[in-house]
Amino acid sequence: MDDEAPGAPRPDGEGAWSVTATAATALALYRPRTLKNGSSFLVLDHFGDAQAIGSTAEGLFHDDTRFLSRLSLRLAGLRPLLLSSAVSADNTMLTVNMTNPDIPVAPDRKLMRDTVHLERQMVLGPGVVRERITLRNFGDAHLSTEMSLTFAADFADIFEVRGQKRARRGERLPPEARPDGALVFAYRGLDELERRTRLRFDPAPDTLAGRDNRWRLELPAGAKTVIEVTITCESGPEAQQPPEAPGFDGLLAGMRAWRAEREGARAQVISSNQAFNDWFARSESDLTMLTTQTPSGPFPYAGIPWFSCPFGRDSLITALQCLWADPELARGVLRYHARLQATEMDPARDAEPGKILHESRLGEMAALREVPFGRYYGSVDSTPLFVVLATQYAERTGDWALIREIWPNIIAALRWIERHGDIDGDLLLEYDRQSPNGLVNQGWKDSWDSVFHDDGRLAEAPIALIEVQAYAEAAWRGAGRMAKALGHEDEAAVWTDRADAVQARVEEAFWCEELSTYAMALDGEKRPCRVRSSNAGHTLLTGLPSPDRARRIAQTLMAPESFCGWGIRTIAEGESRYNPMSYHNGSVWPHDNGLIALGMKRYGLNVQLERLLTGIYDSALAVDMRRLPELFCGFPRRLGEGPTTYPVACLPHAWAAATAHAALGAMLGVSFRPEEGVIRFQRPVLPSWLDELRIENLRLGSASVDVRLRRHEADGGVSLNLLRRRGQIEVAVIT
């Protein structure tokens, strides 16, 4: 997936950027408290502290740099006792409730525990944290005590936090207490950029001492006091910093207004099953938090903590999964990638004209090219996926004005597929990195050992992945349909013919009769990697296989070797490199399953679809907060146990969150005919755990409908009622 997982082992020489960090505790078990806004994110423990106990991936991050590495609150020198800790349902505010332990106040007297209530509330804006600390004395006597906050700023690049070792770093300057009461930590980087963390306090601490800052508290019985802290991330000359952010309440109101705007742009879903509602609501809230408003529109960042930045493949797949409910997200993604599409050859960045972005970073190491990801193009699938999303967006919305706007980018992407992506002119899309520091594998499974033969030998580049051929075939076919709609008849015919040729070539080169599925890939000698993998399931999404082969692929994917009970494994049990604890060779990825579910629906494979959807749904119920992680281990499902966590999986992650939309889209079989003003539901399916479903604000152009679907116990059929219609729009059910 994204630059490989932190902690994934790699042999020497497989890329200078490789990382070796390991996690002491799986993020899914440890459950850090996370907020995100724009290019900033905050990861804290349950107490609202960062790295108060030991080294972790906690802190305040902005533009791929950790601006605050230590935050620790103490009452009378002791850590308070935790009562509760939660991020609000809309992901806008962290609230932590604590109380005092037994505190000695005299040789013969102590403050009894549970006397002082301490509440921490935090909100995150772009490059700024506002914290409000409220202390109240519930005792019957006056209280004199002390509260302290300890800070540190290491200005570590995100790749350092992931485990990358650097030969040298810039200069960390001593903390400085300014005359205006601000406390400033600063770092002068090797990229000649000065980064600063500025802290302001209201009221000012009685002791402002750099790392440790103390307030003397005098609290009469029943009284309370409030301390507010502002933490601001700054880069460049101080005179050029933006104006101060709104206060705590203003910042919170602005964030909630943005979230309300995003919610209003997409369909709303509620069902008769509260657990399903919780999963879907959590997924929507996480997607909104991970989405950043860019000049091109809304754009989903990949995941926290490792990938909170723009990714090509991730954003395109996330938008595809959500397209039926939220076409505005796809619009933002398409415009963003059109703007950053490569225009020239740059081997150091694996860039070629027409290629779509893989990843964009803003940190010091990227600026110095210690890692190649400042603006990196080393993914083979982003470019065809860009054309696929453009096609599906046009057919979902009828927004041909956007397609005309990005038509030169679509043409450039197709030229890249033909001229640069097809290295040897055999109609197949291959990859072979140009940058010695770039990614060895450039599909979504981008671990160094993720593409291999049935005897375990690693495939040598150039490599042609099966799912990428499906994306390419769909790109050519979709481009043909778009060209025809725009009146470009000659291009439409040529591109449709090329799609037919690619499809025939794939069937000839990849099908493995003895495995009842496609080979995972072809190596540089065109030898098939005869391995049962989830990659082949993506061909169902695009419609590449014949109906008979699609059925056989689905049966292979749902066999016990591949389907573990929670979902489909990336690699089937019994294959040479199968390891259920690996990043890509036996784990389960929710988004992978979501795409396969959409593909099963395309072929009317409803029996397999219901089994798969039940596994995905059950996994969501079994994880904390109903928040599906980036991936989990592929061990077989056991009674009374949930999925086994993968230690450093991102949580939340955009395309994992979008899996809820893919699952529901697969159930509904929903499609759109904007030229006719019709929304169609093709053989809708509601599993046994979902009796009734209501969808509001399902939009087509300026019109929208509210509908209700009900499952009939007697025969499992689904009926649909139109509840409300706004504008010229029709709803049709195809049985």
UniProtKB/TrEMBL annotation:
Ranges where the Mannosylglycerate hydrolase MGH1-like glycoside hydrolase domain occurs: 314-616
Taxonomic superkingdom: Bacteria
UniProt xrefs under Gene3D superfamilies = 1.50.10.10
Among SUPFAM superfamilies, the record links this protein to: Six-hairpin glycosidases
Which residues does UniProt assign to the signal peptide? none
Pfam families this protein is in?
A: GDE_N_bis, MGH1-like_GH
Domain Putative glycogen debranching enzyme N-terminal, first and last residues per copy = 35-229
Q: Please name the InterPro entries in this protein's record.
A: 6-hairpin_glycosidase_sf (IPR008928), 6hp_glycosidase-like_sf (IPR012341), GDE_N_bis (IPR032856), MGH1-like_GH (IPR054491)
Protein name, per record: Amylo-alpha-1,6-glucosidase
Organism, by scientific name, is Pararoseomonas baculiformis
